[in-house]
């Protein structure tokens, strides 16, 4: 890497073109695998490798039945970074480390950072509440220095949630971070595979136009506030159950997963993330409803995950221009301080 910028592994967004563009521009691109079958992941890795020789990563779910096969595929194909949206378990960390992979989970609390650092991870992404998609409740300005103080002497710490500019990068460095990870800024880029009409909706969203809801899949998730989200917020869990069952059926059909494997993943999800069974049942909503909006452009029945920075973004530049702008502004700020 030539610059301390990471493009996060956003489901349905972080495909080969976006990942390769980030790597070619000097950052670290993370390929989203949670929404792919194993065969699709193999094809996506091959496409990234055909576009760039630079290191890249793959974002993994810890509760899928074939996580070990995915790690084996990464080892075979030379993907260097294992990124985890959920906390991996000690066995997974050990497996990745033995194979020489760089392990980098995302955390939303100091205690989570301490736990994974004890397991031997190489880095953590500390994502504050401003971040998009599944997020915690602690603002980045409080979480990031806490995590740096707790584990910064043992692992690299990157900040996430609210970053989109060079000034933000300098602020993260001042807190003691090694760099920043950005999702929404890269989602709204020329190389992002989100339909143009959906990108236009994002660009029209104000800073106050997002909401953290638990009504999509049971876990807190920051999304653009739409009529659909308001409707979901007004529903009870029992009334949301039919949608969750339909989502689970659709997810099973699209991924080819057997009913037994879905049940195994559900149990692993419940135990690994301390969820209730009602949250597990709802979990299939997230990938299906996100796909409806971000892939099919059906924002009337889908959700739009986003960070709060969506409200200050006004254009769709190429990834190389985004990275150049961030680094140029950061260097300008630092030169101003030096003077």
Descriptive report:
With 339 residues, the chain is an alpha/beta fold. The protein folds into 2 domains: 217 residues, Alpha-Beta Barrel (TIM Barrel), CATH 3.20.20.70; 100 residues, no CATH class. Helix content is 48%, strand content 14%. The chain contains 15 helices and 11 strands. It has an 8-stranded parallel beta barrel, surrounded by 6 helices. β5, α5 and β6 form a beta-alpha-beta unit. α1 runs parallel beside α2, α5 runs parallel beside α6 and α11 crosses α14. The mean pLDDT is 89.
List the keywords.
339 residues, TIM Barrel, 15 helices, alpha/beta, eight-stranded parallel beta barrel, globular, three-stranded antiparallel sheet
Produce a short descriptive summary:
The chain has helices at 16-24, 38-51, 67-77, 90-98, 110-118, 140-151, 166-175, 184-187, 196-203, 227-233, 237-255, 259-273, 277-282, 285-294, 319-338, and strands spanning 5-7, 28-32, 57-60, 81-84, 102-107, 123-127, 133-134, 156-160, 179-182, 210-213, 221-224.
The secondary-structure element order is: EHEHEHEHEHEEHEHEHHEEHHHHHH
From the 3D structure, determine the CATH topology of the largest domain: TIM Barrel
Strands of the widest sheet, in order across it, are 1-2-3-4-5-6-8-9
- Gross CATH architecture of the largest domain: Alpha-Beta Barrel
Give the rounded overall mean pLDDT: 89
Shape: globular
Secondary structure category: alpha/beta
Number of helices: 15
Please estimate the helix content.
Answer: 40-55%
Proportion of residues in β-strands: 5-15%
Largest sheet: 8 strands, parallel, barrel
Head-to-tail CA distance between termini: 28 Å
Uncertain runs: none
Tally of distinct domains: 2
Structural Rg: 19 Å
């Amino acid at each position: 890497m030539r610059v301390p910028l990471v493009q996060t592994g956003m489901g349905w967004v972080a495909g080969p073109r976006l990942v390769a563009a980030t790597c070619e521009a000097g950052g670290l691109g993370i390929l989203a695998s949670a929404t792919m079958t194993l065969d699709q992941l193999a094809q996506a890795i091959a496409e990234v490798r055909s576009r760039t020789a630079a290191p890249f990563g793959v974002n993994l779910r810890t509760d899928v039945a074939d996580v070990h096969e995915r790690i084996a595929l990464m080892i075979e194909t030379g993907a260097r970074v294992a990124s985890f949206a959920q906390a991996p378990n000690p066995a997974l960390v050990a497996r990745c480390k033995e194979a020489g992979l760089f392990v980098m989970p995302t955390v939303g609390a100091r205690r989570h950072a301490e736990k994974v650092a004890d397991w031997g991870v190489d880095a953590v992404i500390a994502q504050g509440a401003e971040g998009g998609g599944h997020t915690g409740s602690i603002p980045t300005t409080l979480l990031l220095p806490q995590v740096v103080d707790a584990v910064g002497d043992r692992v690299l710490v990157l900040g996430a949630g609210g970053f989109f500019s060079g000034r933000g990068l300098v602020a993260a460095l001042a807190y003691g971070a090694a760099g920043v990870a950005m999702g929404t800024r890269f989602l709204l880029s020329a190389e992002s595979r989100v339909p143009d009409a959906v990108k236009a909706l994002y660009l029209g969203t104000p800073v106050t136009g997002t909401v953290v809801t638990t009504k999509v899949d049971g876990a807190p998730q920051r999304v653009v506030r739409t009529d659909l989200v308001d409707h979901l917020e007004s529903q009870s869990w029992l009334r949301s159950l039919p949608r969750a069952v339909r989502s689970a059926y659709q997810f099973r059909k699209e991924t080819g997963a057997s009913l037994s494997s879905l049940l195994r993943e559900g149990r692993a999800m419940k135990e690994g993330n301390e969820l209730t069974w009602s949250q597990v049942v709802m979990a299939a909503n997230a990938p299906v409803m996100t796909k409806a909006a971000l892939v099919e452009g059906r924002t009337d029945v889908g959700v739009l995950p986003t960070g709060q920075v969506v409200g200050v973004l006004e254009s769709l530049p190429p990834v190389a221009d985004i990275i150049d702008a961030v680094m140029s502004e950061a260097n300008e700020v630092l030169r101003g301080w030096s003077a």
